Amino acid sequence: MQEPTDRPEMRMAELARRSDLSVPTIKYYLREGLLQPGRRTSVNQAVYDRTHLERLRLIRAMTSVAGLPLAKVRAVVGAVDGQASEIEAMGVTQDALVGEAETDDAAASAILDRAITARGWRCASSSPAYRAAVNAVAMLSEEGLTPLLDRLDAYVEAAEDVGRTDLDAIGDAVSMEERIRGVVLGSVLRTPLLEALVLLAQQHFAQDLTRSEES
């Protein structure tokens, strides 16, 4: 269970304990401008509050869990601290998680566009997520897996349910930091869970196929 974050102020040692980060790491983030300075109580002492803890938990999610380099962490933090809307900040976070994917496969783009347009999705074709989806469609085509592509509408519908569930799950977060952290952790940790559940579903339905072939 996550500790409550409503204590008014804390010193560096407590901030380190509650964020699961070392004091030198926190000081490094302070020097790099990823974490705002605390409130000075003396020349060598400062106290920190809930906003510092939320920021450190976001940074830890991006570095320790998602494995993002500092440059991408800085981009996400910059979006959160800047004038970006929450949707724009989530877009920056998605881009950081997906990474760069280059594609110029017009046929694959057309297949994907038909499927997402049919669901009424509003997507940026310039986003890394879109390009990654186009690459996946292109690879399926190259491998001749047309039975999967013929069911792309069903995959899009399933993805819509997952995406809606992800955002519903972070809807109660009280700050942008917490919601962006939820996007990071949800995307990274949900992926292996979803893949494993799909494999289990395949096991389940494969038994029906086996019985059908034996009868």
What order do the SSEs take from the amino end to the carboxyl end, as H and E?
A: HHEEHHHHHHHH
Low-confidence stretches: 1-5
Structural class: mainly alpha
Number of strands: 2
Helix content: 55-70%
Q: Treating each run of at least 4 consecutive H or I residues as one helix, how many helices?
A: 10
Question: Given the C-alpha coordinates, what overall shape results?
Answer: elongated
| Arithmetic mean of pLDDT | 90
What profile does the largest beta sheet have?
A: 2 strands, antiparallel
- What amount of the residues lies in strands? under 5%
Distance between the termini: 51 Å
Radius of gyration using CA atoms only: 22 Å
Strand order of the largest sheet: 1-2
Structure description:
- Mean pLDDT is 90; it is low at 1-5.
- α5 packs across α10 (176-214).
- β1 (39-40) and β2 form a beta hairpin.
- A two-stranded antiparallel ribbon has the order 1-2.
- It has ten helices and two strands, in the order ααββαααααααα.
- The termini are far apart.
- It is an all-alpha fold and 215 residues long.
